[in-house]
Structure formats: C-alpha cells, structure tokens
Amino acid sequence: MTLTRILAELALNTRTDELPASTYAAARKMVLDSLGCAIAGYNSDGIAACLEAAREQGGATQATVLVHGDRLPMDEAAFVNGAMIHALDYDDVHLPGPLHLMSSMLPVALAASEYVRADGRAFLDAIILGVEVSARLGRACRPLASPAHQAGFLQSSIIGGFGATAGACRILGMSVEQTVAALGLFYAQASGNRQALYDKTLTKRLQPAFAARDALWAADLARRGITGPERAIEGSAGLVRLYLNSDGAIPPEVLSERFGRWEIEELSVKQFTSCGACHPVARAALDLAEEEDLAPADIDRVSIYVGEGRNELVGMPFEMGDSPQVNAQFCATYSAALALLRRRAGLAEFTSERVVEDTEVADFARRIKVLTHHDQPPPDTPCPRGINAWACKPHGVFVETRDGRKLERWRTPLSVLGPDAMDWDTVVDKFKECTTFSGICPPEQARQIIAAVESLGETSGVSGLLEACRQVLWNPQ
Predict the structure, then answer these.
(1) Which CATH superfamily is domain 3-266 in?
(2) pLDDT tens digits, one per residue of 232-282
(3) Options 1.20.1050.10, 3.30.1330.120, 3.90.850.10, 1.10.10.10; CATH of 276-417
C-alpha cells in the first residue's frame, strides 16, 4: 500500500464514533482562534489586492469570503480566507511539524462545507482528520530533512496542503481512490520555500492560502476523473526525495498509527502577533520588564540569544524595508524592544503604520545585539517525545541597567507555545482582542460568533456559523 493511500484511508475511513469528545473541543477552539485571526487581519497589508484579484477572476458563487461577504468559487474564497487568517502571523502552530495548519485547513473546510451544505459534525470531522493527515506526515518528514532543506523548505504550504486536500475530499464525499488521486494532484501543484520569509515580503502570508486554493483544485479535478500520482510521498520524485533530500524512507506505521493524542489536540495557539521563534524572547523580555519594573530610562544595553549560530529566520538586524509589519513580525530584536519599552507585543504594536511611527522602538531594536553563542545557557528542558528539540532549548534576554545591574531571563519556545498553554477561555479572550482590534466587531457582537462556534456539531452547523458572521461582519467598509 502506498503512503498516499494510507493517508487517504485515514481521512476517509475513520468513523465519527472513533473521534473522542476532546478532539471536537480542540477543533472548536482552533476554529474560533482562526476566525479571530481572520477578523483581525481582514484589512492587513496585501489583503485588499488579493480580494480584488479574486473578484476580477469571477466565477461560480460557491463559497463565502469571511468578513467581506463576497461569494466566489470555492478555491478563490479559500485563498482569500487563508491569507486573512495567516496575515498577522497570529495563527496556530504544530510544533512537532513544525507547521501552520489551520490557515489552509479551515478555509478549505469552510468552502467545501458551504458548497455541499455539510452539517457541523461533518465540518469538524474534516478538520480533525485533515489536521491528522498533515501532522502525521509532518512528524514523519522532519527527521528526514537535511539541515539545509530544513532551513529552506516551508513545510506549512506543502505538508499542510496534503491534509487540507484530504479534508476537502471527506466533505465532498469522495472515495479513497479519488482521494489518492487528489493528494497526487495537490502534490503536482505544491511548492513551498522560505525565501519570501527571508526577504520579508508579503508573499509569506499567502503561502498557506496557495495551499488552500490548490487543495480544492486537486479535490475538484479528482472527483471529475483526473488521475494523480499514487506515490506522491515516497516516489523517485516524491516529497521525501525532492523536498527533504533524503535517501531515507517513511515507515508505513508512522502514518497509519496515532502518535499519542489526536493531532488536533497538539496544535498550539499563539500569544503574540509575531513568528513563533520570537515568542520566547518576547515572553522573557515582558517578564523581565514587569518583574524588575524597568523603565526605558533604566536600560543601558540589551542582548538576546535565540540559539547557537546565526538565526536567519528571526535573528537578523531590524530593517524597516518595504513591508514594515513583516520585518517586525520576523525580528526577535524588535519583539524584545517592544516588550522592554512598551510592555506590550500585541496586534496594535505590529501594524505597519505603528512600526513606522514608533521610531523609538525601531531604533532601540537596532541597538540590541544578537548573540550567536552562549557559554552557559540553562540546560534544555525535558522534551516530550516527538517534539522538535529546538522547542526545548532556552532563549535568553540580557539587560544591563544604568545603575550597574545585570539582569537576564530565559524561556523555551515550548513554555510559551505548548499545546496546553491556551485553553478555551483564553482563546475566547484572544478572539475578543482580535475582534476589538478589527474595529468592526465590538465584544457584544463577538459573542454571537463565539456561541455559534461553541455549538458547532451539536445545535449549529456551518450555515449557522456563517449566518452569525454575516450578521456581525459582512461588508465592514
């Protein structure tokens, strides 16, 4: 049996009664978190252009664009929704992958469910099992990647797309054979690299959206009889050999057997609107500023440590560039500067306008030194089985004050981004923060959407959720 077929059978043949209540609770939490990210990001840099392009394409009115209310072909609606969810880099992360999953999974599940009028339980089933497909594949691929490929390969937009495709096939009522073809068709379109991130461009926020669009294209073509490669993962030009540069193989049991908890329960909710690699520094700097009651005038020099060597992802010097928001989101010194000077690192602090206006933070960030080596970092924290070792390595913030004190705080990525760090109630608070930031959804109206998500699969379905959004959000302009 091919690995692609194993994933197809996982997505199609898993029965609803095999999924415990905890998976549905986790799925509702992640739906709410992702909707909040979309609402907060509805008018972020680049979104208007994406929506304008989709409107000009036109086509069948199959699915709804969140917030704006346009009805577009499934793939176009999913593309815009995925871009909004990922725009602020506030959406979930699967640490073992590492993967962003809901920014491709939710747009696909929403579009396909609206198109076939699926009920709430079918919608949640597709999300749970689509995440399961991508997360198992991500766990299996990570150990096989060479260091160079780990640095250059954007897992979210390729591996995430396999799960989104599988979820779409389940909602659309496709067979295992059609799903195998769809997964192969998705792979034929797949691409994903970190260059857009390294160059700090708006393309980065579109990459999960590309995966969402391509997943729906793949499912639609497969149900019309287009065949796809059955060995998309292990073939001579498959995912492992082409993207991971590996002669190794994925054992079938890694994909066919559940790792521990269901993977939807392993998704982490972000606390800051920046790259997850900035989170431990942001948290450490906030804790230090608050616990020591530091005022900006107290601070003489600051340095940070984000692991050995030059971290090209977030360890480069801050530059304003053509995309100030993206440059700030992916700069650990900027997160540290915000935390130390403003004691905040939230939505309002990371808009392009605010980044440009707050010259004090920008100048301070440029003066923070990034250490490429530390002689005596604290020991790594115990790393749960299957978690990337990076997540368990301490990152540090070091402050020298004008009165001669030397202060430091250390935090690991896992301590800030662990999957159990944010429960339903804290995600509700984050959702309200997102809706308030948007300026189009005051807290009393946000409660309608929260209630619709909370009852998904029980008393409400996708149509009820969209109606709740329609009453509150549509056409904010």
Answers:
(1) 2-methylcitrate dehydratase PrpD (1.10.4100.10)
(2) 999 999 999 988 877 888 999 989 988 889 999 999 999 999 999 999 999
(3) 3.30.1330.120
pLDDT over 90 for what percent of the chain? Answer: 78
Strands 369-371 and 395-401: unpaired
- Mean of pLDDT values over 116-133: 97
How is residue 460 annotated by DSSP? B
Question: In which residue ranges of the chain is CATH 1.10.4100.10 found?
Answer: 3-266
The Cβ of residue 348 has, within 10 Å, a number of other Cβ atoms equal to 12
Dihedrals phi, psi of 370, to nearest 5 degrees? -100, 115
CB 432 within 8 A of CB 453: no
Specify whether the backbone of 409 is left (phi greater than 0), alpha (psi in -120 to 50) or beta.
beta
Write down the H helix ranges in 292-423: 324-329, 332-342, 352-357, 359-367, 413-417
Question: Could you identify the residue written with the tokens 């690995």?
Answer: 3
Q: Which two tokens stand for residue 170?
A: 């389940």
Mean pLDDT of 116-143: 95
Q: Residue 405 corresponds to which tokens in the numbers above?
A: 């004190």
The token pair that represents 406 in the structure block: 């030397």
Which of 131-166 are b and which e, b meaning 16 or more Cβ less than 10 Å from the residue's Cβ?
Answer: bbbbbbbbbbbbebbeeebbebbbbbbbbbbbbbbb
Residues in a beta bridge with 304: 370, 397
Helix (H, G, I), strand (E, B) or coil at 340: helix
- Is residue 24 a contact partner of residue 124, using CB atoms and an 8 Å limit? yes
Alpha carbons 81 and 87: distance in angstroms, whole number: 10
> Is the pLDDT assigned to residue 151 strictly greater than 80?
no
CA 471 to mean position of chain CA atoms: 27
pLDDT of res. 477? 47
For the entire predicted model, the pTM comes to 0.94
Q: How confident is the model at residue 337 (pLDDT cuts 50, 70, 90)?
A: very high
Best CA proximity match to 128, nearest among 155, 107, 109, 156: 109
- The pLDDT value given to residue 475: 57
Dist. CA 5–CA 179, nearest whole Å:
8
The secondary structure element, H or E, covering residue 399 is strand 395-401
CA gap 176, 347 in Å, rounded: 42
**CB-count exposure of residue 353 (10 Å: 0-12, 13-18, 19+):** exposed
Q: What CA–CA distance (Å, rounded) separates 437 from 170?
A: 35
What tokens were used for 107? 């747009």
Query: Cα(176)–Cα(475) distance, rounded to whole angstroms?
Result: 39
Which residue intervals of the chain bear CATH 3.30.1330.120? 276-417
